Amino acid sequence: ANCPKEFLCEISQRPLQDPVRSPYGNVFERNIFKTWVNRNGSICPITGQPLGLTEVVRADDVVEAMEKWKAEESSKRNTSPATSPTADVAMRGSGNVSGGHEEGGADARAERPAAAEEELYDF
CA dist 110 to 7, 45, 60, 118, Å? Predict the structure, then answer.
């Protein structure tokens, strides 16, 4: 299943895990935004307006909407005749995943900590 655009970080375009909202209405993954500020200063990557770490707030509404969407997608998969392991990985990729998979397996990329993913982005 494809993650809806509103559940993607506006900087990295990756699924959100710990979303924060700026006063301008933009939503970012907290760790990605921290990396942005550390590398580029306290400026919004979307608007160019001043924006520091203390000015973003947890986007609880986005978290709730993501959980609802995940539950609906899970329900759709459970009622379909066949489930796709790839869809399961995609669904878990937007939340914190703990245990249950052998290290280095197909799911290792989906379970990589956010800190490791930050290194992939060259802001």
Answer: 16, 25, 23, 14
> DSSP readout, 23-75?
TTS-EEEHHHHHHHHHHH-SB-TTT-SB--GGG-EE-HHHHHHHHHHHHHHHH
For residues 54-79, one letter each, b for 16 or more C-beta atoms within 10 angstroms of the residue's C-beta and e for the rest, the string is: eebeebeebbeebeebbeebeeeeee
pTM higher than the cut 0.70: no
The predicted-structure confidence for 8-26, as pLDDT tens digits, reads as follows: 999 999 999 999 999 999 9
Which residues are CB-contacts of 29 (< 8 A; sequence separation ≥ 6)? 9, 11, 12, 14, 16, 17, 18, 19, 20, 114
Q: Which residue has the higher pLDDT, 19 or 94?
A: 19
